[in-house]
Amino acid sequence: MNPTLLSMIAIIIAGGATALQAPTNARLATAVASPVNAAFVSFAVGTAALGIMALALQTRPDIQAAKALPAWAWAGGLYGVVFVVAAAWAVPRLGVAMTVTLMVAGQLLLSLTLDHFGALGVPRQPLNLGRVAGVALVIAGVVLVRRS
Length: 148
Prior knowledge:
Elements: H1 3-32, H2 35-57, H3 63-67, H4 76-94, H5 96-117, H6 129-147
């Protein structure tokens, strides 16, 4: 199978998992008394799953390469905390579609900025009309989902 197509399918599946994650953690938040507690449980389960995967794949971290990373490269888990807590909190208030649509809009706006400036080591891809229009259409989608 074409590696690009395989990558695209994997990302679509991951997006679907994001849509499942939001209401799952929202339900968990009710049972464990807060979105922060739900995120803690979610990350504990995720950490266990990642540990099993790492053992199964027999991956070995390159400690020297990890030590050489800039400080911001260690912050990925913090972004995940913001994402999971915000989703668990927002779903009961906004619904799944609105929550996920707003998250995608936020992802796209920041993604355009990161691409444009080549920030955090990503390849530089300057803004152009097509990219801005694509994000504008998603934001229009947020408005439509909200008004429906």
